[in-house]
Amino acid sequence: MIQAPKGTDDVLPDEAARRELVEAHARRILGAAGYRRIETPAFEATELFTRGVGEATDIVQKEMYTFDDGGGRSLTLRPEGTAPVCRAYLEHGMRKLAQPVKLWYLSSFFRAEAPQRGRYRQFWQVGAEAIGSAGAESDAELIVLLAELLESLGVKGTRLRLSSLGTPATRSEYREELKAFLRAHQDRLSAEVRSRIDLNPMRAFDATDPGTREVMRGAPTLLDRLAPEDAEHFDQVRRLLDDAGVRYELDPALVRGLDYYTRTVFEFTSDALGAQSGIGGGGRYDGLIELLEGPHTPAAGWAAGVERMLMAAGELPAPADYVDLFVALAAPDGSRIAFELAREARRAGLQAQLELAGRSLKGQLKHADRIGARYVAIVGDARPQATVSLKDMESGEQRETSAGTVIPTILRGSRLS
Ligand code: HAM
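# histidyl-adenosine monophosphate complex -> structure
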């Protein structure tokens, strides 16, 4: 039997119904704040991601599904949505619109990661991007919107970590300072941290061994090195979040897996998830549009994993599958009448299903009961004025009527009940 590739998952109907709830909440919450839906193609020019996400990131180095389009052009299945949305913003001249342009998406993304619980090779994200606004209100509003989405889905045990990365220049100066600090204390660091001083000095903040932890208590943090205007921007984001009652932890060592961030970065995690605890994250990316050869355009956004949100969500109310009418066939020659009756019922706004499996009448009634049909119309013969038995499945009452009166009777009946 052919199976779905490793790290991909089928979305079966029950799960699809839960996803529809995610979509409905996202549309309501983001729509109320003026975000409009956008969808970009599943694959893009590879260069969009090497430039946008960053040549040195794990995503670009190891996780992209890249292929030749047959004409020598390199294409990549999108590993994330921010660079594509910025590409679309530029390509469609959206900078001529009133700014910021606020967009949201619900799309699938692809990363060649080692699959495990909560980590897939094809996964879905809800994302929001506000392009063309530099204000701290934009950062804070985005964070509040994601907090509301998580809350509306009943996502449990969430924590918000917040930091600021300042500008790329501040960041690279700080990196040098941190490396020098680590080298000066290297005899007290773990072997692993010591071996990665040049490659990834920020990792030292996550170390668990007592020696390294002791050293890191005295380490300089990036937050202490922010330029005054970046520090002021960050203070304002914090003030707005405080006013909104959104709780967060400052995490000066917060690192995101994408290179485009400037200033604010944040990540929501959930204790309800295992190792893959990141539910959603984002931040400001004031330099990305320029990297894509557009004019300087400040922007911010986030994305949250749909599978992870659903894993950490409580029981979501299952949308009721309601069937008003099941059209059963007592004799095969009535099938045209039955077909027409089901179609008319749907046009009248009813949920109507037709017998499609050639069951016996007894089998059909059993099936109608199983799917929760409110009424069953049993079509006996092929005459246009055919007599139809209409059975009320709640009361068990059954009466003879004509095909033409079935729908009005149900409409009256459902209004009464
Ligand atoms: P990201 O942190 O790489 O950010 O991904 C956002 C969320 O997508 C993660 O928190 C996680 O829930 C989910 N996710 C990521 N990879 C996987 C995977 N392999 N399997 C399942 N879920 C996954 C971004 O993608 C940025 N574009 C966010 C952003 C938008 N920043 C600014 N605007």
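# post-check
The pocket of histidyl-adenosine monophosphate is lined by residues 80-82, 111, 113, 119-120, 123, 125, 127, 129, 257-258, 278-283, 285, 301-305, 307-308 (CB under 6 Å).
The two ends are 48 Å apart (CA to CA).
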